[in-house]
Every structure is written in C-alpha cells, then in structure tokens.
Amino acid sequence: MMTFAWVLVALTSAPISVDYRGTLGEALNAIATKGELSLIATGDLGVQAEVHLKDVTAEQALEALVKVHGLELHHEGPVWVVKPAAAAAAAAAATAPAPVAVPAAPPAAPAPPPKPSVSDSDRKVQMGTGSVSVPDGEHVDDVVAYGGSVTLGNGVHADGDIVAFGGDVLIGDGTTIEGDAVAFGGQVKRGEGSVVKGEEVSIGGGVKPLAKALPAVKVAEKKQDHEGGGVAAFLVFFATFFGLGFLLMMFAPNRMRNIEAEIRNEPVKSGLAGLLAAIGWFPLSIFLFVTLVGIPVMLAMWLLGPLALVMGMLALANHLGTKFPLMKKRRTQAAVLAVGLLIIMLVAMVPVLGQLTVFTAACVSFGAIIRTRVGQRGSALPVAEGPFQQVGA
C-alpha cells in the first residue's frame, strides 16, 4: 500500500504562472496544483492574498507567498510544509527581566552559547515499522508508526499528526499535539496536562472508543446487532479504508485534490465516463484474454482498477466530509475523511436505494479517476476548498 501511495506522487520544477486573488489557502492550493507539489499547511489560511507571478518555479512562488504573510516554509522529503512562524523567541525576549546593574562589579564571565534548538529544517516526519518513541521535551512534526504504538514522552510538542497503525497512541504528561491523534487497532491514551488540538480517533479496542469519536457508528450497531459480527465487520472496513485514505491524503495530496475537484465540478461527465467504463469492463477483459497478447493488460486492469476505484471513493468521502454540517466547528483531515467515509458506509446499508446510490457514487468516482488520469490533471474550474485541512489554529 505504501508503494502504491508513493507511485501516485509526481513532482516537477517546471516554470509556472499564477494569477490569483482569494484566500491564502486557495492561493497555496493554486500554486501546489500547478507545480504538482505535495503541500501541508497550517495556521490562519483565510486571510486574503493576491498573487501575480509569471515564469517562476512552484518552489519560488511558495517561498515568496509565505514570506509576505510571515509564515515558514520547509522541505521534508517530497513534502513541503507551511506553518506559522515560531514566536517563542519573541515572547521570551518580551517577558525577560531587565538586567540589574551592579556598581564596581567585575566583568561577568561570558555566557555559554545557547543550546541549539531544533529548527524547522531539522524537524522531520518520523516514520517506522513497529513502535516509535519520542523522548521527553522533543519538538517534532508528524509521527507515524506501522505495526506498533507511538509513545510521546513528557513535554513533547508535535506540530502535525500522530498516527499509529496497529497500536496505541500514548501521550505523555504536558505534551501538546497541534494536529490529530489517530490509533488504528488501539486507543489514544493521554497523560496529565496533555493537549490534543485536533481530533482524537481510536479505531479498535472495542466499539466504544470509535462510537465516542464518531457517534453515527451507534446507529450501525443497533441495525446489525442481530447479524452477529456486523459491527466488527463494519469497523474493520472503516479502519481499512480510513487508513488508506489517510495515507493517500498524506503522500498524494495533489492527486486527491484533483480527483475531488473533478467530482465536485463535473459530476455528470464523470458519472457518464464511469458508467461507460463499467459497461465495457467485462467485454474488454474478454477481448484482451482472447487475443492472448492482451492478457498482461487485462491483469493490470483487474489489479489497478479496484485500487483506482477505492482512491476515487476516498476522494468523494473527503468531499462529503467537508460539506457535512457538523464539521463547521472544526475541520481536521482525520475528522473530514472519517465523517465522509462513515456517510458512504451508512448509505450502503440501506437496501436497494442505498446500494443504487453507492453504485452511482462509484461511477462518478471512477469517472473522475479516468478524466483526471488518476489525479494527474486538475479541474479546469477554480477549486473552492483548499488541498488540505487546517490542523493548527
């Protein structure tokens, strides 16, 4: 799954031209889309921005825009990160007591050089297989563990999201997480004085943790109590697709944005394209099989086609999550994706009508995949929402 997600990311440094007036988030979105950059942004993205740039690289455009708005930009592998400029040094200088002059005192010994702090360029996304631990007092961005738990020591400050696949998220005393804390197959456990400014999502360890984070699951539980194992299957499917969607939004945000924009702007054309593809899928497969030389193409179709469909449905789920009324309070990537995916899964449980609705949604999603060439091409219409969800302030 990681290999498939990385293959979806394409970066380019070709010159671009941007002529845009709108919010800062939309301006960043326009630059990232044209430059095909993977971008994560936090902070106040609703301020107005006007951008008129010609024949510059996407990186130069980002650097100029964030500099004007007093933000910080740094590069972490294939991902560009925009965040508010750190104000800790300024706050410390403002609150520091004034020096007291001592008459006739001998010159003071030179103060030792200050301990170097972890700069933005030194902070990286920490990933690992098995359990991942962050020592006390560290300053990190995103932390992701595959097949284990994430343990944050006391006083840790995380600017991004903390995600554990197959384990718990253990948060030490006095630790602050600016983004989301998500545990697949475990629980989020907080120490005294710890703060999670985003969403806390626990998928695993029973129905109650998920029901607390997503109350709509209780409806599914009541509907399927008589089936035995219905809720467990529901949670397994939810956790699987939620995890895949979270990875795609993290490692292929531009592709997902382009697919989501195509679904939003051209649903009819996308639906027709997806319906034609569904009708011709089996005849084309039979034709390729009969020709013998087309068998490798047929195998690739059956291998990559379902993955592309899942990618399109997750983009649709992300779009539905941004439109859900309950998300007006706070929009984080985990909450938006979870609510949208939950809506699709609950609708699919409705006999006949729900299944027809999901089939229509699948046609629209797969058609958007085809029309954008798996997210390589963006929609010609302006994108209303940004390519990322605010996880900071």
Folded structure, characterized:
With 393 residues, this protein is an alpha/beta fold. The protein has 3 domains: 11-85, Phage tail protein beta-alpha-beta fold (3-Layer(bab) Sandwich), CATH 3.55.50.30; 126-213, no CATH class; 218-371, no CATH class. It has 12 helices and 18 strands. The chain has a 5-stranded parallel beta sheet with strand order 6-9-12-15-18. Helix 2 (24-35) runs antiparallel to helix 3 (58-68), helix 10 packs across helix 12 and helix 11 crosses helix 12 (353-371).
Beta percentage is 15-25%
Largest sheet composition: 5 strands, parallel
Rg measurement, Å: 24 Å
**Uncertain regions: pLDDT < 50 for 5+ in a row?**
1-12, 87-92, 114-123, 205-229, 379-393
Question: What is the overall silhouette?
Answer: globular
Order of helices and strands: HEHEEHEEHEEEEEEEEEEEEEHHHHHHHH
Summing up helix and strand content along with how strands pair, one would put the structural category as: alpha/beta
Total domains: 3
Note the gap between the termini.
31 Å
Q: Tell me the helix content.
A: 40-55%
- Quantity of strands, as a count: 18
Average pLDDT score: 74
Give the count of helical stretches.
12
Strand order of the largest sheet: 6-9-12-15-18
